[in-house]
Specification:
Largest sheet: 3 strands, antiparallel
Strand order of the largest sheet: 2-1-3
CATH class of the largest domain: Alpha Beta
Shape: globular
Number of strands: 5
Structural class: alpha+beta
Oligomer: single chain
Number of domains: 2
Number of helices: 4
């Protein structure tokens, strides 16, 4: 399986978004449904053989294009992947069924993405140690 890093660039502002996927065609279609795609260009930047390589590379490309500070990326990349509820896994972390159900409840109640939920949980955890 091939994993890709891609860039979406706003033709008017030059701002960009860096994404990671294993299906560029599907992700491109999803993005096009969300905004006026005629104002944006889509390009695959690099291909990788494993998810671990992909997530590490995503951090690099977001840094390279400065798309976290001056673009559309909301994170620095590489973390906060989606949960596979059949195995209760995300980015190498295995959840027991009780935790997975709590995460799903939070998602349904707040409308937040899994990524947003994980990032908030991590931030809260880290603040406890400041």
């Amino acid at each position: 399986m091939s994993f890709q890093i891609y860039r979406i660039t706003n033709k008017k502002t030059g701002k960009c978004y860096i994404g990671a996927t294993n299906n560029f065609k599907r992700r491109k279609t999803q993005h096009k449904k969300r905004f006026n795609h005629k104002d944006y260009t889509f390009k695959i930047l690099a291909k990788y053989d494993s998810p671990d390589e992909l997530y590490e590379a995503e951090k690099y490309w977001i840094w390279h294009y400065n798309s976290y500070k001056e673009g559309y990326n909301k994170t620095k990349g590489g973390i906060g992947r989606h949960i596979d509820y059949k195995s209760h896994r995300t980015y190498g972390i295995k959840f027991d069924e009780e935790i997975a159900k709590k995460i799903e409840t939070i998602k349904e109640a707040t409308g937040k993405t899994y990524k947003e939920i994980f990032l908030e949980a991590i931030e809260t955890y880290l603040e406890a140690f400041e």
